[in-house]
Amino acid sequence: MGKNIFILVLIQALLAILMAFLISKMSFIGRMGITFVYKEYLVFKSPWKTALLLFAVQTFLILILAFFKYFTPSKIANTVAVFTILIGLGAAYYTYLDFTTTSHKYMKSNFHMGFYLFWFAWIFSAVYLLFLKKKKVALTNLEIQEVTSA
Predict the structure, then answer these.
(1) Which of 51, 75, 125, 128 has the fewest CB atoms lying closer than 10 Å?
(2) Are 1 and 69 in contact (CB under 8 A)?
(3) What does pTM read for this prediction?
(4) Measuring CA to CA, how many Å separate 50 from each of 40, 67, 99, 133?
(5) For residue 148, how many other CB atoms are within 10 A of its CB?
(6) Which DSSP letter does residue 1 get?
């Protein structure tokens, strides 16, 4: 399971770089708005800071889902993964509504695609871990004898 999660983290790192590149290609009006009015979004003007932030969020999501996958029964882990997928779908829809009805619609399509890609990556992680199989641990003869004698 560790190798598969490492592959997922590498995929998320590449997606975070792509997302950051797309988000940083915002419109001139958007850049001015962030510079002068919405200073809390300054991180989105810098591609490397954006990539780091998005990668941290995706890695945290992977760690939570992997924790549930490894330490809980599969029914609970699958429920958490499905719930995470539903959160991602709902958030992607809300992002779409926000980008089409508020002043965010002036931020250019590249900016929008970066955030849609974020929610795609979120859902991808959940689906990946939903279908990831737990590694079966083989019992040794000594462990079998201890279990039967107890």
Answers:
(1) 75
(2) yes
(3) 0.81
(4) 13, 26, 19, 32
(5) 7
(6) -
